[in-house]
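User: My notes are a mess, but here's the protein and pyridoxal-5'-phosphate's SMILES. Can you give me a structure?
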Amino acid sequence: MLDPKTRRPISAEDLSRLFSQACSEQELNTVDRWIDIPEPVREKYSYWRCTPLVRAYGLEEALSTPAHIYFKNESVSPIGSHKLNSAIPQAYYCSREGVTNITTETGAGQWGAALSYAAGVFGLECAVYQVKISYEQKPYRRSIMQVFGAQVTPSPSMSTRAGKDIITACPNHQGSLGTAISEAVELATTTPNCKYTLGSVMNHVALHQTVIGLEAEKQMALAGEYPDIVIACFGGGSNFGGIVFPFLRHTLADGVRTRYIAAEPASCPKLTRGEFRYDYGDASGYTPLIPMYTLGHDFQPANIHAGGLRYHGAGSIVSELLKQELIEAVDIRQLDSFRAGCLFAKTEGIIPAPESCHAIAAAVDEALKCRENHEKKVILFNLSGHGLVDMSAYDQYISGSMNNTGE
Ligand SMILES: *Cc1c(COP(=O)(O)O)cnc(C)c1O
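Assistant: No problem, the inputs look usable. Here's the predicted complex:
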């Protein structure tokens, strides 16, 4: 990663102006094979972890596939998604370092909700900038954040210089994760004892999420199986890295042949159609320059319902893995994602988040290939969250008014 001003490699000290000291060090750590989960974090995890690993018998039957389909159910967390796996340690490290306020951006509201809850758990104040279109389209997520005690502002807003600049240039800007990041970063760098947090893209976030794959590995062993294919939806790469990296280490160390598939929206295709180069993590160029697959930091994604996947870039580890062809990526159209999501809901009894529907659609595609080729593969996908706060999106799908925006 490079400093945006000097274009020199960034240090943990540079990063710690934005992030907690612990996360800054984790971000650049190339030495330790294992980083222990602190005891107070394990204690908070125990409220909902270990999450279930479920064999999707109903879905298998509906597809008449010989494949065995498993999913790791991260939707059972207090806020309904995997995001809390990183919010809890990030808030914990901040509180341990004497930080009193934390801030962040949020798209669909999942990360904001996770951080709001985690901040409360460790006695911190939390300010969230929410992408304006999501703030308006998904009012209940805003309410969830407010119930947990956070202050929520739609982005772009007039409360920061970055927000004012964006509104001046483009008065009807609907907001993106990029604009919201710029505002939160500005607040953190201009307020004493305030740190910024990110819910995706960064290496330390993917590190915290590996608890998903580490548990899944043990659970698959209990079931007496090992995945041939591991699938996750892809926004910035945290739930993908979380479930994939623990399995991928066996591919790297022992040559275990497993396929890893990232499922991204066709309207925001950084992995399948982006470019590998240095780019900013945000719209205004405040964050470090990150080597990544990107659509350009000024890319304005279409207003698809999978708000958590509306991000221009991909985390650097995942980007490098894709470049080296150790992982694959597929793009999924919005209508196809909801079709798969509804089939999953009917057969497994869980209404998936619009983001997770992309992973389900990719898993269904692979299971159907197994049917055609009479192959009994083991497919594991991550159910990153539930969709119970996204029912207006399902309403649109069912009424036929949804389209394949921006593809
Ligand atoms: C945020 C989110 C995602 C996408 O983020 P990643 O960092 O790519 O995991 C996926 N699913 C859900 C439910 C989310 O909230």
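The longest strand covers residues 125-131.
User: Great, I'll file this with my notes.
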